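dumping this here so i dont lose it again. seq + smiles for 2-acetamido-2-deoxy-beta-D-glucopyranose
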Amino acid sequence: MCFRSLSALVLVLAACSHVSQAVLPIVMWHGMGDSCCNPLSMGSIKKAFESALPGVYVRSLEIGDSVVKDTENGFLMNANDQITQVCAKLKQDPKLADGFNAIGFSQGGQFLRAVAQRCPEPQMHNLVSVGGQHQGVYGFPRCPGANSTLCEIMRKLLDVGAYVSFVQDHLVQAEYWQDPFHYDEYVEKNVFLADINNEKTYNAAYKTNLQKLSNLVLVRFMRDTMVQPSISEWFGFYKPNSDKETVSMKDTRVYQKDLLGLQEMEAAGKIHFLASDSDHLQMNQTFFEEQIMPWFK
Ligand SMILES: *[C@@H]1O[C@H](CO)[C@@H](O)[C@H](O)[C@H]1NC(C)=O
Ligand SMILES: *[C@@H]1O[C@H](CO)[C@@H](O)[C@H](O)[C@H]1NC(C)=O
């Protein structure tokens, strides 16, 4: 640094405070079958942020107290409890006190949206959802992640029935299961998605808090073989009573009834739809650098 007089010092301080405010910390939430710290996934993305944005604080969320637990919790820990745990972690982290940007992968996308809606402090600014299922799923044609044991458990429990209360309370994937043929049952029995989408009991704070985001960036994988339907990644879903025809965000109930303020956010230019021409989470480096990184600069 190079200040030689008080006025120069003031200028430098002004410049410094500008610089230090320019890059917000980043919070990451991994997807199902993954963990906070896998060097091949979240670990490498954390490193990419750190090298592109020198000095940035990146927190990759670990749910539970070990990597093994973290992976297991992605299947078996009630999503509402996960969100409560994350809200507490974010609040207790002094480095996040002045706000942060967030990036969620797969189910981490809708979970971070739930964090924005339920826990407005500290403030989340940009939320980038990479393959998140904002209207849920109706089918898991393929299971991600290396652990086939957990995958088997998930399939068996979904066979028992996504809306059976034991399954709802214990299987994360059932908690964002939406059966387009049984909307009323979904609203009644789903313990997570129907709530954060304001379809159960209307919670005005969800709408107010979501609109505090500066940007909601929705990345969809156009050749996704894991998420059905992949348009859920853009807040669309199946048409009522169909598992073939889909509708875009604007034709869903959540949008039409303005349950979350998506109409206002769209009018304000806050919702962004990005497409990766690949399978689930398989974005290439160019896409990451050119389409995702700018939201964190
Ligand atoms: C898969 O998950 C199960 C249940 O959490 C665990 O016991 C097992 O060690 C895991 N296997 C691998 C290869 O990580
Ligand atoms: C990277 O992904 C983008 C978006 O899917 C695609 O348009 C582009 O062709 C890909 N680039 C390479 C080098 O594969």
